[in-house]
Amino acid sequence: MFIACNHLFPSSFLIHFPSKHSNFTFFTPPTTSKTLCSSTNAPKKPTRRKSSYGSSRKSVLRKTFKQEQVTFTAPLSDDPLVAIIGGGMSGLLCALQLEKRGVRSTVFDTGVHGLGGRMGTRDIDGMVFDHAAQFFTVSNSMFRELVDEWSQKGFVRQSQGVIGELEAGGHFVPFLSSPSRYIAVNGMRTLADSLLSESSMIEVVRPCWISAIEPYNGMWHLSENGKHRGQFDATVIAHNGKCANRLLSSSGLPLIARQMKRLELSSIWALLAAFEDPLPLLGKTVAPFEGAFVKGIDSVSWMGNNTQKLFGSQNVGQPHCWTFFSTGSFGKRNKVPQENIPSATAEKVKQLMLTGVEEALGLETGSLKKPMYTRVQLWGAALPTNTPDIPCIFDPLGRTGICGDWLLGSSLEAAAISGLSLANHIADFLKSGGSRPDEFAVGLHKDFHPLQGHDIGQFPGLESNKDICEAEVQLRA
C-alpha cells in the first residue's frame, strides 16, 4: 500500500529541535560529546580523501554516528531552490513534481553519456544495448497515470515479445499470463532524456560528481572537488552506494547517513554481446524469445535480445545485440573496483558468462560463435537486498531527503513513486516555511527488512508459469 510521506509520525520518530537562533546550529546526538559549531564559520575547503577501499565498515559507521546534527533555523528563501544529486528515475521525477508544485531544482548527475541511472542504454555504431533496466511493469495507479502519459507522447510503448524462464539445457517456459511490459522506444535512456524535454524550472548539470555538501549561512553549499556548484535551500540524495555514503559521512546529517548505511546492495556483472547470426536455439526453446530469466546457472540470470525488443521484424541484416546479467552470487564472488576492472578479470568473467549462455541454451561448450562485439561491466551497487518499505526519508532540521527505488523495492515503479513522494513532501515543507520541523520528519528511524525479487530486480505483477500452474491447482482443489 502506498503511504503518503506527509504522514504525522508519533513522537518516538521525531528529532530533538535545539533552541538556537542563528542561521543553523549543530545538535550533538547523545552518542557524542562535541561542542556546538558556530554558524558564522565558513565551510572548510574540501580536502583530498583517501580511497574508501580497504576501510572497514565499522570505521565508517563510527565516523557517521559521531557527526553533529546540522539544524537550519534561518527563514527559507522566497523562491527556494532544491539540489537533487542523482539523475535516475527517482531524481528526475522528484524534479518534475517539484516543478509542478512551483519549486525550482538543479539535478546533478555523473552520467557522461546522458541521464538515467539504471535506465542505461549504449549505442555503439548502431548496435543498441539496454545495459541496466530491461523493461518495467505497472501496478501503482499513480505510476500508471504517468506511464499512460508517456505512452501518449511516444516516450514508451508496450513490449509484445515473448519472455519466460530458461532452464539449463535449453528448456524455455514462456510466461502465459503477465502484466503489460513497457520499454522506451529507442532504448531506456531515451526515456530519461525525454522526461525533461518540456521542463522550464529544472537545470541539469552533468557530468558532475558532487563531492561535498556543507551548511553555511542558512543554505547548503555543494562542491565538486573544490569547485563551487551553488547554494540551495534543500538537498535531495537520489543515488546510493559508496559515493552517497562518502558524501554523507561528514555532511552533518547523521540520521540520514545512518539510514543510508543500513542499505545493502548486490553486485551484478553485465555482458553486452553482438552476434552476426541469431543465437542457436534447440527444439525445446521458443524462437525467438525476447528475454529469459535463466534458472540454475550461476554466471547468467538474465538474457535479453535488445534487437528483437527494440526493432522486431525490422532487424533484418542488423547484428543481434544481447544483454546478459550474472547472478548476485556470481557478482559478489568476482567483485572488483568497477571504476578500474582488471583486464584479466574482465576476460575471465566474459568467458564464464558465455559458457553459461551455452549451458542455458543446451549447446556444447565452445560451440557458440565468437561475438563480433563484447563489453563487460560491473554494477557494483546494482540492486537493494533490504528496504525500510517507506516512500521517502526526510530530515527537516537538515532540510535534506532521500529518494530511490530501494525505499520501496527494486523496480523503476518503486523509484518513480519514491521521487514523487519526496517532491510532494519537500513542497509541503517549503510551503510551511520550515517553522514546524517536527511535523515533517519521516523515515529517520525506520527498520529495514529483507527484499525478495529476481537478480535483476522486481517486476510487480510478473509471475512465472510455475506460479500460475500452482495457483490453478490450488483453485481446483
TrEMBL record:
Region (Disordered): 37-60
UniProt xrefs under InterPro entries: FAD/NAD-bd_sf
Any Pfam family the entry gives: NAD_binding_8
Domain of life: Eukaryota
Coiled coil location: none
Annotated protein name in UniProt: FAD/NAD(P)-binding oxidoreductase family protein
Species in which this protein is naturally found: Tagetes erecta (African marigold)
